[in-house]
Amino acid sequence: MKPRPFRRMRSSLRFLLVSLAAVLSLPPVRAAQPAAPPPPFTADGFAVPQPGYRFQFPRDHGSHPDFKIEWWYLTGHLYAAAPAPGAPPRRFGFQATFFRQAGPRGGEDANPNFASSHLFLAHMALVDVQTGKFIHQERLNREGWDAAAATSTLDVRNGDWSLRLADPADASLQPTLLLRGSVHADAVFALTLKPAKPLVVFGENSVSRKGADPTAASYYLTFSRLLADGELVLQHEEKTETLRVTGEAWMDHEISSSQLSAGQVGWDWLSVQFTDGRELMLYRLRLRDGTADPASSLTWVDAAGLPRKQPFTWEVVARWTSPRTGATYPSRIRVSTTDPADGKPVEFFAEPLAAAQELPGTLGGVPYWEGACRIVASDGRILGSGYLELTGYAKELKL
Q1: List of residues 6+ apart from 86 with CB closer than 8 A
Q2: Does some domain include residue 365?
Q3: Is the torsion defined by CA of 284, 391, 331, 387 positive or negative?
Q4: Among 40, 304, 363, 389, which residue's beta carbon has the most beta carbons within 10 A?
Q5: Beta strand pairing status for 208-209 and 264-274?
Q6: Which has the closest alpha carbon to 370: 353, 355, 357?
Q7: What is this structure's pTM?
């Protein structure tokens, strides 16, 4: 980042990742106090999510440039045929994330080459579960400089990485998505993603609150179970390997202008796809003293796609320290909650499929851990698969 515009780009990006919402709680999460009505705009002029907003698709799958922060976040588990008779199938975890962050209102650079203040950051990652090998790549571009996002439908790209609707005019709640990504020269993948159930809107009355600050909120749209089918090409030292892969994925689309409230330093987020056809999402907004903000939340998604919130507890059972950043992350977590189907208590563990799944945040300035997990019952039964995100452990996140 040599010239001045690139220094500006770098500092803007430090805030980019400050928008995901990953929340859980140590003691059972207390209900948040009734919030004041949100203002229409933040102090710096960006739109604030409003209660009662009526989503319209495919438009709301696209970009919302009046809001400061937005991302399209995909994670999932892919399987390929076993390499030999009797061997288990090949298994991979993947992440594909497209971020957009707007610069200051009215603060475009004098240089006409930098007329757009929107920055696009993207992350791609792949873990080979059998070997534990984890590869990742970041990209950073200004809008128009090999990055863009449509406002009328889902069509976002960063270089040759892209996420779009198969039919740009599809207004249904279960549209087919097309994802194209790669990790350097090591891996290339092309996936068709078909929702197994309708889109879920997390939060209350269209808004997902992230703290006491009325501007700390998002529109939080999720495909909680996408059926994945496609191709994964791996480049080894001496050969190229092409694999037909199938599996399941999760996609979040969040739209906001402020995600963290005062005193919050990071978040823990977990998505779970149970083998019984249900899903679970939880996020724990961590305060500086290590406790959870009352805005932390856990939501079940039933087999029909209906969300149900429940209280929960979060306990770190084991930790892992990154040799790259020195940050210490939770590496085994016990979650206790209530099954909304029968009211009975539920306990499970989230266990990473590989310890080293940290993204260094070289371009975005925010190291974080994002990785594939197995979901295990107390008696050792496999209950499903998940993805865990841990931020603010290498350093506090700041807006």
Answers
A1: none
A2: yes
A3: positive
A4: 389
A5: unpaired
A6: 357
A7: 0.89
Q: How many CB atoms lie within 10 A of CB 244?
A: 11
**Which residues, including other chains, have CB under 8 Å from residue 295's CB and lie 6 or more apart?**
23, 32, 209, 210, 211, 212, 216, 261, 285
Q: How far, in Å, CA of 356 to CA of 371, rounded? A: 8
On whether residue 43 sits in a domain, the answer given is no
Give the total residue count for the chain: 399
Our count of domains for the chain comes to 1
- Provide the 8-state DSSP code for 166: S
Distance CA 315, CA 336 (A): 9
What would the pLDDT profile of 116-146 be if each residue is shown by its tens digit? 689 999 999 999 999 999 999 999 999 988 9
| Chain centroid offset of residue 355 CA | 19
Q: Look at residue 11 and give its three-state secondary structure.
A: helix
- Confirm if 349 and 333 have CB atoms less than 8 A apart: yes
How would you class 210 by CB atoms within 10 Å of its CB: exposed for 0-12, middle for 13-18, buried for 19 or more?
buried
Amino acid letter, residue 110? A
pLDDT at 117: 83
d(CA 285, CA 287): 7
Asked whether the beta carbons of 94 and 78 are under 8 A apart, the reply is: yes
pLDDT tens-digit series, residues 263-291:
999 999 999 999 999 999 999 999 999 89
Asked if residues 169 and 150 have their Cβ atoms less than 8 Å apart, the reply is no
CA distance 223 to 58: 14
CATH number of the domain encompassing residue 367: 2.40.370.10
Report yes or no on 245 lying in a domain: yes
Residue 236's CB is within 10 A of a number of other CB atoms, namely 8
Distance CA 356, CA 345 (A): 32
Whether 206 maps to a domain, the answer reads: yes
Amino acid (one-letter) located at 393: Y
Domain span at residue 253 reads 4-31+52-391
Share of the chain above pLDDT 70, in %: 88
Task: Give the whole-number percent of the chain exceeding pLDDT 90.
Answer: 80
